[in-house]
Amino acid sequence: MVLPEELCQRLAELAEAESRTVSNMAKVLIQQGVERFEEAMAAPIAASSVAPAAATDHFRAVLEEQERQQPQRLRGAPRRVRLQRPS
C-alpha cells in the first residue's frame, strides 16, 4: 500500500509510541476503522426500518462522488520507513 509521506510519518510515530512495528500499527488501525465503519453502517439500519438497499445506494453514491474528485498526486517516490529496535 502506498501512503502519502506525511501519513507514513504519523503512522511511524504512532507505532513507535505503542512499541509496535509500522505494519502491525497499520493493521490495528485498519481493523479499528473497519469495525467503526461496520458499526456506523449497522446502527442506522438496525434503528430504523430502512431497507438495506438504501444503505447500499448511499454507500455507492459516496464512492462515486469520491471517484469524480481529482486524485491527489504523491510528492516524490514512495519510501520505506525502517525503525531501529531499542538496544
Task: Give the low-pLDDT segments.
Answer: none
Q: Work out the radius of gyration.
A: 18 Å
Mean pLDDT: 81
Number of domains: 1
The major pleated sheet works out as: none
General form? flat
Binned, the helix content reads 55-70%
> What structural class should be given to the helix and strand makeup?
mainly alpha
Strand content: under 5%
SSE order, as H and E? Answer: HHH
Number of strands: 0
Q: Count of helical segments?
A: 3
- Between the first and last Cα atoms, what is the distance in angstroms? 29 Å
Brief write-up:
The chain has one domain (5-67). Helix content is 64%, strand content 0%.
Structure description:
The protein is mainly α. It has one domain. Helix content is 64%, strand content 0%. The chain is built from three helices and no strands. Helix 1 packs across helix 2 (22-47). The longest helix has 26 residues, at 22-47. The chain is flat. The chain starts with a helix and ends in a 19-residue tail after the last helix.
Write the layout of secondary structure elements.
Blueprint: H1 5-17, H2 22-47, H3 52-68
List descriptors.
mainly alpha; flat; 87 residues
